[in-house]
Amino acid sequence: MDRQHDLELILRSRMPIVVIETRDEKRMLDLLRNIALARASDTYVPLFRWTVTDGLQRLDIDLEPQLHNAEPPDVLKHIRAVTKPGMYVLLDFHHYLEDPVIIRLLKDICLRYTDVSRQLILISHRIKLPQELESFVARFDLALPGADEREKIIKRVAAEYTAANPGSRVQYDPKAYNLLIQNLSGLTDRDTEQLARNAIFADGVISKSDLPNVMQAKYDLLNLGGILQYEYDTAKFADVGGLENLKRWLSLRKPAFLKDRKASHLDTPKGILLIGVQGCGKSLAAKATAGIFNLPLLRLDFATLYNKYHGETERNLRESLKTADIMAPCVLWIDEIEKGLAGRGGETGTTQRVLGSFLTWMAEKNSGVFVVATANDISMLPPELVRKGRFDELFFVDLPSREIRKRILEIHLSAREQAIDEIDTDAIAEAADGFSGAEIEQAVVSSLYAAHAQSTGLSTRHLLEELERTKPLSVVMEEKIGHLRRWAAGRTVPGD
Ligand SMILES: Nc1ncnc2c1ncn2[C@@H]1O[C@H](COP(=O)(O)OP(=O)(O)O)[C@@H](O)[C@H]1O
Ligand SMILES: [Mg+2]
Question: Tens of pLDDT along 380-429?
């Protein structure tokens, strides 16, 4: 009811154009019809709807569409010629707002509004108005349902379930029920209802197992071909060898991040930056962070941000960050952040603005979005990004020590169903000095092929031979890694 009241106020504000950006077109039309019909007879104004397919049509009473007014200039000329007040809802008119004739016709109608109050209501998912019209426009935000309204929707769907399945009531785990109310935030009424229906009608139970599906469906609804990826396979921290310091740090902050009631006096962590040697588990650790927090993982690819959306980079960044805010609580993973932020020839202005937008969002965000960014190449990292206070902590991920190499080896052998006790993991860990986690994994993969080719089981010998054959990246990049370590010494804390 409140929204109907707000909309009525805007309609009465005597602005010739009212702009409403929404994807919930049906609900908007229902609201408008209610408003028109509720008006007293002395203030009654007819309500019309226009689409390019049907032309003009009365909305408040049942009349056939007038197909002859389907062309955009025709409908505007028609409205301009009308001498009585009216409200005209133009659906998906955003396509035509760059045409000079259309702009002029709109302006004509606006300029004569004081003589004849014909009000235009533009409804589209997104509307960019030409500047010359801005002063004639009021905007209405169809606010999204709040927690109370979401709960009402869920209850309504639950009642529908009971009606459809006589004798059965929806069962719910109270914790999952509250999470469902929370996780449905940021969606329209219609989408909220749809997702609640999917969750409830599947089995008549609201349980924790419904939540990943809800989050994924929500992501699908929100992400209109954007650059934010939903990552399905998050890792477990047991999949990561080493990085004990990082694991400890994250475990300590989990309650504060998840807003545990007992942790309400703790500051909410914002995010971390993982810097270090390639192939040592930064990306893996980012995925595992979502695992440890038990939250959806969204990946923002800065490189695609530039390449795919040339010229619209900033807006796409802002929209992606907004989507992440709506998906909260979640982990936002920005892999190889330096690639998206390093000055690009001729594009340094954009880069600066993108960095600015990102840092502002980081500083102001008060949401449940935990950022995990990774970087390999410090020479490309803008200094503003690593300044104190941007991220909660900068972790350095170095080549693994012998102990950790052994652990990584065991992880990857077990992942491929190899019996660890048959293999001299100590000897192999020793021989793998200078190898990254990725290279150790690669050695396991290759030696399994070798053993298979010889029709034998995997043995220590296969692994040692494989290591022997490989020249690890750390040898080739010795100088670079030395430089990286010196840079990291004063600026970062060790991941291990
Ligand atoms: N510390 C580690 N523990 C377990 N596996 C690792 C580790 N480091 C690297 N790997 C393996 O190597 C792969 C590539 O590592 P990745 O996380 O992409 O490294 P980075 O992002 O630091 O370049 C991982 O998916 C994993 O299989
Ligand atoms: Mg990586």
Answer: 888 889 998 899 999 999 999 999 999 999 999 999 999 999 999 999 99
Does the beta carbon of 438 lie inside 6 Å of ligand 1? Answer: yes
Same domain, 111 and 247: no
Domain that holds residue 209: 147-222
- pLDDT tens column, 85-110: 999 999 999 999 999 999 999 999 99
Percentage of the chain surpassing pLDDT 90? 57
C-alpha–C-alpha distance, residues 207 and 205, integer Å: 6
pLDDT tens for 261-305 read 677 788 889 999 999 999 999 999 999 999 888 888 999 988 777
Q: Looking at the 3D structure of the chain, how many domains does it have? A: 4
Residue where one domain finishes, among candidates 222, 255, 278: 222
Q: Using the 3D structure, point to which of 108, 140, 172 is the last residue of a domain.
A: 140
Distance between CA atoms of 495 and 249, rounded to whole angstroms? 9
Ligand 1 centroid distance, CA of 283 (Å): 7
Mutate to test the pocket of ligand 1, among 247, 405, 441, 477 (most ligand atoms within 8 A of CB): 441
Phi, psi of 330 (to 5 degrees): -155, 170
Beta carbon of 288 within 6 Å of any ligand 1 atom? no
Domain-embedded: residue 482: no
SS3 (DSSP) at 58: strand
Q: What strand order describes the sheet that includes 118-124?
A: 55-58, 47-51, 86-91, 118-124, 17-21, 137-140
CATH number of the domain that residue 436 is part of: 1.10.8.60
**Nearest atom of ligand 1 to the alpha carbon of 274:** 22
Q: What is the pLDDT of residue 287?
A: 94
CA distance 458 to 31: 69
How many residues are present in the chain?
496
Q: Give residues whose Cβ lies within 5 Å of ion ligand 2.
A: 283
Tell me if 487 is assigned to some domain.
Answer: no
How many Å lie between the centroid of ligand 1 and the Cα of residue 241? 9
Q: 242: Cβ below 6 Å to ligand 1?
A: yes
pLDDT of residue 347: 56
Domain for residue 491, yes or no? no
Nearest CA to ligand 1 atom 4: 240
Query: Cβ(382)–Cβ(342) under 8 Å?
Result: yes
Cα–Cα distance, 221 to 405 (Å, whole number): 42
Does residue 390 share a domain with residue 281? Answer: yes
Any atom of ligand 1 within 6 Å of the Cβ of 495: no
Can you state the angle between helices 72-81 and 100-111, rounded to 10 degrees? 20
| Model pLDDT for residues 420-440, shown as the tens digit of each residue | 999 999 999 999 999 999 999
Residue 280 Cα: closest atom of ligand 1: 8
Q: Do 243 and 349 fall into the same domain?
A: yes
What are the pLDDT digits (tens) for 329-379? 889 999 999 988 765 545 567 788 888 889 999 998 877 899 999 999 998
**Nearest ligand (C-alpha, residue 438):** 1
| CA 374 to ligand 1: nearest atom | 21
Does ligand 1 come within 6 angstroms of the Cβ of 281?
yes
Ligand nearest to the CA of 278: 1
Residues 259 and 158 occupy one common structural domain: no
